[in-house]
Every structure is written in structure tokens, then in C-alpha cells.
Amino acid sequence: MDGGISLGLPAxxxxxxxxxxxxxxxxAHCLGMCGPLVSVYADRLADREGVxxxxxTVRQVRQHALFNVGRALSYAAxxxxxxxxxxxFFDAFDSVAAVGSGVRATTGLLVGGAIIxxxxxxxxxxxxxxxxxxxxxxxxLFGRVSGWATARVDRLVGGPRILGLGxxxxxxxxxxxxxxxxxxxxxxxxxxxxxxLGLLGLGTIPTLFxxxxxxxxxxxxxxxxxxxxxxxxxxxxxxxxxxxxxxxLGVSVPHLHVPFYQPL
Length: 264
Description:
Keywords: Membrane, Transmembrane, Transmembrane helix. The chain has ten helices and no strands.
């Protein structure tokens, strides 16, 4: 790091842009997980207002916004926790320079490789295969949490508690969010990770907001196009820790300049 103190916050860096693009293009995938719940609470809101789902009122717009802000805040908070754990993990090895460098390099290779493989899966149209890597226990937990939330939509949808309904999604199994959490772990910088995951969450908002209000559905063709774009964004995101890991091993490769990116 250059002189001065870094708060670890991303500016207009390649990683910040990549996280935002992952969110924007990943919104189509989010519909598979969040779409049913969004449809349920959107219908409940419309019923309460006595209007058609697509006839938006100020209150409906506010509730949709709160739901999506809850998701983004949840991603940011969990990303910060992963980064904190990563920072403690790296600090444990930093007392021995050779070991610490090797651990950081290995982490970069593993995290970067996992994210790149995820991107390739989306590029070749095999995103469903990625879902199969989710452990059965996690899938069951998702079903229980989703069922719990759906059963309580009527209580949560009408006021500020809809923030919590959105926040639940940060804990659910998702091939978009989990690679991002791994990346957060590799940075070891909670503030930076929170900002990056927040950007990702904000990027998903347009698709889910439009789905819950005006669209109601996204065509399979449009979703496939967005998945390919998502795959390209993941390739960029995964290359950052991968290239830093290689350089720590003495392998010179082209790399994207990410200010204050210390661990890898």
C-alpha cells in the first residue's frame, strides 16, 4: 500500500465495476430464487391497495424499495463478516512471511479459480449444473427459510419489516452471492467487502424491482443472454485474486490494478 491510511473502500476500480455488473446481469438468476417470493408479496401489496399489481402507488414503490435495500444491506453485512474472518485467517500466518505468502497465494488461486469456473458455467449455459454443488443440507435450510418467510408475508409486507424479508436472502444458497462472499474472504478488508457486496446487491435491484412491479416475467431468451453477460463479469472478477495469487508465487501475469488490494 502507498503512503497514507486506506479505509479499504472501492472507488471506480475494476473490482467495483465487476461487482456491479455481476449484480446487474445476475438479477435474472435472482428471479429463480427471489421471484416467487417477490410475486407473493407484490400481489399482497396490490391487494391491500385495491389496485392491479402493475398500477403502482407510492406505497408499493416504497415497499419494493425497502425489500431490495434489505437484500443489499444483508449482502454487505455478510460480506463484511467473511472479510473479517479472512483477515483473522491471514493475520494468523503473517508472523511467518514465507508461510503467510503461500497461504495468500493459495487462497487467491482457489478463490479466483472457483469464481472463474462459475463464470464459465454461465457462459456455456450450464448454470443449472452449478446449483448442484449446493449441499443438500443448505438446500433444505433454504426451503425452510423460504417457507417461513412466505407464510409470514402478510405480517411483513405492509411496513418497514419488509426490510427483514429482503435481508433473509443474504443467507440463502446462491451461485451468484457465494462466490462474492469467497472474494470478500480473500480481501480480508471488512469495509471494502461491505461496499463491494453492497454494490452487487444494488446491481440486482433493477431486475427484481421491475419484475415485482411492471414485468411480471422475464423471457427465457433474455435470461440466457443476461447469464452469458454474467459469466463474462465473473471471469473478470475471478481473474483479480487469481492473478495476485500467481504473482505471489513469482509468476508474472497481466493484472488489473486494484488500489489497496493487500492480501492477494
